[in-house]
């Protein structure tokens, strides 16, 4: 699959802002279980092989998993501080946990696990996120065995974009991209220049 225009814009922004550690951080908004917006910062883990699908690692015990199971629609918002570019990426999220019956998806999950640092992997061994602390003392740091595959709490999210809103504040340019499926089930993108 050739690079779609919005993906190339994003890759350029990642490269030009790559010297800033926070350039890999983006906001993921979901619909809360009570119907209100729910937002949090997540880390970009790359694109799924040969696609424009965005990978995010997360803890299966977090609230966002429950929310995505009820409504798979989500939006990423990504702002690059050096180049003054914003990307809002809408799509549906596929949750890949250890119970997924698709062997290829489980292999993607394992690949993402091993691509993560040991420190990142250790977060999935701690207490359940969002629950009250039962112990006032700092939790001891747990180091996972580097040769063992993903733990149950590790989850890979794949966001398949269907709409992208790109804003460049330096050039005062705004572009929207909408996907459509052809009769042969081939995805294509329609770009429109809109007022910022």
Structure commentary:
The chain is an alpha+beta fold. The chain contains four helices and eight strands. Strands 1, 2, 3, 4, 5, 6, 7 and 8 form an eight-stranded antiparallel beta sheet that branches. The two termini are 30 Å apart. The mean pLDDT is 93.
What's the helix and strand layout?
Blueprint: H1 5-16, E1 25-31, E2 37-43, E3 54-59, H2 63-70, E4 73-80, E5 85-96, H3 103-115, H4 118-122, E6 154-168, E7 173-181, E8 187-194
Antiparallel strand pairs: 1-2, 1-4, 3-6, 4-5, 5-6, 6-7, 7-8
List keywords for this structure.
196 residues
How do you describe this structure in short?
This protein has helices at residues 5-16, 63-70, 103-115, 118-122; strands spanning 25-31, 37-43, 54-59, 73-80, 85-96, 154-168, 173-181, 187-194. The chain has 196 residues and is α+β, with helices and mostly antiparallel strands.
Main sheet specs: 8 strands, antiparallel
Distance between the termini: 30 Å
Order of helix and strand elements from N to C terminus: HEEEHEEHHEEE
Structural class: alpha+beta
Oligomer: single chain
Count of alpha and pi helical runs: 4
Gyration radius, rounded? 18 Å
**Shape type:** globular
């Amino acid at each position: 699959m050739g690079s779609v225009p919005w993906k190339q814009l994003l890759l350029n922004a990642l490269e030009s802002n790559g010297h800033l550690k926070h350039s890999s951080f983006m906001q993921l908004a979901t619909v809360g279980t009570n119907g209100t917006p729910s937002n949090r910062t997540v880390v970009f883990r790359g694109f799924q092989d040969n696609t424009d699908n965005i990978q995010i690692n997360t803890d299966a015990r977090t609230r966002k998993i429950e929310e995505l199971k009820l409504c798979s629609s989500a939006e990423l918002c990504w702002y690059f501080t050096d180049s003054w570019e914003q990307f809002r990426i809408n799509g549906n999220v596929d949750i890949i946990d250890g119970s997924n019956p698709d062997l290829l998806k489980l292999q993607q999950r394992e690949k993402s696990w091993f691509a993560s640092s040991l420190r990142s992997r250790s977060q999935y061994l701690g207490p359940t996120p969002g629950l009250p602390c039962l112990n006032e003392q700092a939790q001891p740091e747990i180091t996972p065995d580097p040769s063992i595959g993903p733990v149950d709490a590790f989850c890979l999210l794949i966001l398949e974009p269907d709409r992208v809103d790109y804003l460049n504040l330096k050039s005062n340019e705004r572009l929207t991209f909408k996907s459509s499926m052809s009769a042969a089930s081939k995805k294509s993108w329609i770009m429109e220049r809109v007022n910022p």
